[in-house]
From TrEMBL:
PANTHER family: FERRICHROME IRON RECEPTOR-RELATED, TONB-DEPENDENT OUTER MEMBRANE RECEPTOR. InterPro entries: Beta-barrel_TonB, Beta-barrel_TonB_sf, Plug_dom, Secretin/TonB_short_N, TonB-dep_rcpt-like. It is found in: Cell outer membrane. It comes from Sphingopyxis lindanitolerans. The lineage of its organism: Bacteria, Pseudomonadati, Pseudomonadota, Alphaproteobacteria, Sphingomonadales. This is TonB-dependent receptor. Residues 48-99 form the Secretin/TonB short N-terminal domain.
Amino acid sequence: MTWTHLIPVAAIAIWTASPAAAAESQRFDIPAQRLDNALITLGNAAQISIGGIDQRLAGARSKAVHGRMTIAQALTTMLRGTGFTYQIVDTQTVRIVALAPRSKPVRPAPRPAVPPPRASAAAPAPAEIVVTATKQGQALDSYPGTAHIQSVGGIGLGENQGTAAFIARIPTLTSTNLGPGRNKLFVRGIADSSFSGPTQSTVGLYLGDLRLTYNAPEPDLRLYDIDRIEVIEGPQGTLYGAGALGGIVRIVPKMADNGGFHASATVGRSVTRDAEPGYDLGGMLNIPVIADRMALRVVGYNQVEGGYIDNATLGMRNTNRTRIDGARANLRVEPGDNWTIDLNAVIQNIDTRDGQYADIDQPLRTHAANIAQPHDNDFKATGLEIAKDWGDLKLLSSTGIVDHDLSDTFDATGYGGNPEIQIFQGHEAIRLLTHETRLSHGMPSGNSWVAGVSLVRNIDRIDRRLGPLGAPVTLAQLRNQKTEVAIFGEATQRIAPRLSGTLGGRVVFAETIGELMGGSGEDFEPKRRQIRVLPTAALSWKPTSDLLTFLRYQSGFRSGGIAITGGQINSAQRFDSDSIHNVELGVRFGSEADSARPRFSGGITAFYSIWTSIQADLIGSDGLPFTENIGRGTVYGAEINGRWHVTDHLFFDGALFINRSALTNPVEGLEEADERPLPNVARTGGRFTAAWESPLSDRLSLKLDGTVRLIGASSLGTTAPLILEHGETTQLDFSASLAARDWALTLDATNLLNVSGNSFSYGNPFTVALGKQITPLRPRTVRVALRLGF
């Protein structure tokens, strides 16, 4: 599925292994309860996908459904008197819509009230895709900005995949390619460097309302039992605070429901050309604990990705094998009166045995290193969310704790002119505490507002060692503590019948405390405080229901800190805060949500950003990392996307972007970087998808999906020794699914052309300056999987 597919406001997206004929009779036993939970139960029982379009679903009460009947009869019974009706989109999908308001009488004399229409599939109001990451539940068709939404679980974006899967679907979302659990995400060309250090990430990453990272690489969570991915472009400082310079990526999980017990299991086997095979196992259990009050949803998975890189020095093959183990749990309590309490927990461990880079003077997909260079990413998080729904007014209070440990090992042979084998070991321990309480209000007219308070505290400990095997010595130990307290608000108000305006702001108080353990550097301040104001403003004009134009200004910043000094032992230096200001102009046409009829929809957006005092995590010519402000830069570009639903069974979907960036005013000492592009973001890129879906019988359906992705050239870095080109690759993928009532058989083939290419140019910081490193794509890989639903 693509981001234009139906997305429910109330997050009622139920995975199905097969279409169920609407006319087929079956037995239902669903008690009266909250309407959103009742629909989830019905979707699971009937094995259909149900999409809801109105946030008031959670506040409505369903009718009981008991006995043997068709799906249409069950829906009619359940929705009677709720103010909602339904539309059968296709053999696999039903959409829930609000009943249209009654027309006023045209005669002056009073007339009897017209009774509300019966729930049926005929001519309902069009559904809406809602961008929940706006924190106001704004409809995508009216949102004055650029957003993308991807459904998870269909072919092309399977649950067994990680971040790379939806990156491939959104050209303006890019990342480095060091390996699973080691990468940095970038949105719209706002990229600072290839390396992860004490600087805050330029993209905010969330699991629901739980913030996952502050300055760490993204954890590459597997997408089992995930409903959808939302990406909002542009600085999001007003709503999300520091660190959202490029935008927001929000992973929305499915939540526990107390409507009934259901489960799913997936098993997959993959074969990679000239490499080790792999496998994946995943499962979900949804268990009602207390009827209509409490439910538990548990997800677990285990994966092995076969290695495909050889080590010529050690004479070993397929050394970069990766193992991923993870679990997630949600305990949902509904005490009544539309209160909801969610307790969430996440754990995932990634263990990679070696780097996934190659040397150009070695055979294909081979590097030469004196030791293995493993990486570990151990991620744990817990969160508590308390919500209250009064209909148009909503309260949400969310608190999260993240415990994130990362370890790297590199071959440092030759450092300091020493020909003996040397090892570099880096360890980073991150403890992140976040809290946000907010009120939001949305009206059918499109007027909305949100206001809240937030707290972020991140403690980052870095330990780096280098020396002979078995006895490396400490290079530096650094502790950074950052605290941010903020109040924020944003409101959208209709100015004229077709014109709306948005204003918002965030006031941030930030404190940074840095400490170099056991060493001394320059005379830096151990504690720094600052106050920042992050405004936003937008105008949107909607001359017709299918056309929207918008102009938006947004801003963001990252606080400063201290970092290890490049090329020195036990030494640290300050780096200052940076900030960004962005203006974008866009137009969207067509209805993103109405897939019931052939249509063409799309959009064009142009943007311009000014980025001052850019923070960058860099490496020196000796291979040691350091951080500094590199100067002022500009980023500008345009993106085009379009979707053509040719028939009920066939659609085409494509996107193209052009990006230009430059370091326009480098700091003293980096004059050679003047006007050079910022790193890691391709100057051009695109994606084209063709998908076909058709029922083969009442109980069997076939889906096909083919995608070609074009990745243009970019540079590894802005300054020496990282001025190395990579990119210019084309990747072709294909997916197929054969689904019946309670099972689905899928086939996924990636990199069908078996292109090696160079998606990145960094694997070992101590030898990258030689200019010999590349990061080839994973060879052609075919995966066959079976999924069962219970």
